[in-house]
Amino acid sequence: MRALRTVPFVILLLLTACGGGEEEASFPAAGKRAAEMSEPMMMEAPPAARGMVADEARSMPAPDVRGGGDAALVERKIAKTASLRVRVDDLDEFVPFVQQSARAAGGYVASLMEHAFESRRTADLTIRVPSEKLDTFLETLTAGAAYVEQRALTLDDVTEQYVDTEARLHARRELEKRYLQLLAQARTVEDMVAIEAQLANVREQIESMEAILKMLDQQVDLATVHLSAYQEIEGSFVFGGSLIKAVQRAFREGISAVISVALFFVRLWPFLVAGALLAWWLRRRRRA
Predict the structure, then answer these.
(1) CA torsion, points 185, 191, 195, 197, in degrees to nearest 10?
(2) Contact between residue 129 and residue 102 where contact means Cβ atoms under 8 Å apart
């Protein structure tokens, strides 16, 4: 009698293996992972739930994760990243120009950091723009710069990762449907608890895969531009780009020097008092 109970479970494993083989024909990595993740879930269920899974497996066809075709027919997913280093005549005018150009292209400035040194000012920006407008946007930036020192473009093909994740997501959704059908047919509380636990695990995997696909879509739809711009300041004595600011700085440094000297003598007051007393004593001794 116990041997007869194991027959449906063996049939389930055979059907799962057949379904996994069909997945591996189109997506080897996705099919293998889906098969490996499905079998432990079935085996962890109680005996009654395993019998329900076997009955359901016999009545349902194996899921087809191939979608609409193989990876060769899928539209390529290309993530673009550009880097640009330019010299500008006026950084205060160039940064707003970049922000306005990004908005006009349908993008935005993700980050901005400015630095000021003795002889130059710099601005580092990270910009996201639609991929189809990347070339036009780069031409706009180079036209607004005085000199282009470096320009680079990197293309990252994420098609394989996208298709693999999409295939595994399809397999997880099919498994979710099976668990929902089994949950509706559950006869005991033990079966319901076991199926709901596996269903929660599958849904967590589905949410994670959907987040990965969303992230890849954003990388493909919006290109990333790393822009570094700098402005040379004439005369190393000029700080902040104007002679007035340099004079103000020198005046503040002079006051600071006077205060520092005064504080230095204040710190020496014990020695000064001792020296004065010693000089007074020596003078009295000579008179005596």
Answers:
(1) 150
(2) yes
What single-letter DSSP state applies at residue 133? G
Taking the C-alpha atoms of 48, 51, 56 and 62 in order, what is their torsion angle to the nearest 10 degrees?
Answer: 130
Quote the tokens at residue 10: 């063996």
Going from the C-alpha of 163 to that of each of 73, 113, 155, 169, the distances in angstroms are: 11, 37, 18, 10
Q: Give, for all 288 residues of the chain, the pLDDT tens digit.
A: 444 444 444 444 444 444 444 443 333 333 333 334 344 444 344 444 444 444 444 344 434 444 444 545 668 899 999 999 999 999 999 999 999 999 999 999 999 999 988 788 999 999 999 999 999 999 999 999 999 999 999 999 999 999 999 999 999 999 999 999 999 998 999 999 999 999 999 999 999 999 999 999 999 999 999 999 999 887 544 444 456 666 777 778 888 888 888 887 778 888 878 888 888 888 877 776
Token pair belonging to 239: 């700080």
What is this structure's pTM?
0.54
Q: Please state, in angstroms and rounded to a whole number, the distance separating the CA atoms of residues 8 and 13.
A: 9
Q: How many CB atoms lie within 10 A of CB 30?
A: 22
Neighbouring-strand partners of residue 128:
108, 224
- In b/e form, how buried is each residue of 192-213, taking b as 16+ CB within 10 angstroms? eebbeebbebbeebbeebeebe
Half-sphere exposure of 35 (CA within 13 A, CB side): 22
Phi, psi for residue 187 in degrees, rounded to 5: -105, -20
Report the amino acid identity of residue 188.
T
3-state secondary structure of 47: helix
Residue 247 main-chain phi, psi, to 5 deg: -65, -45
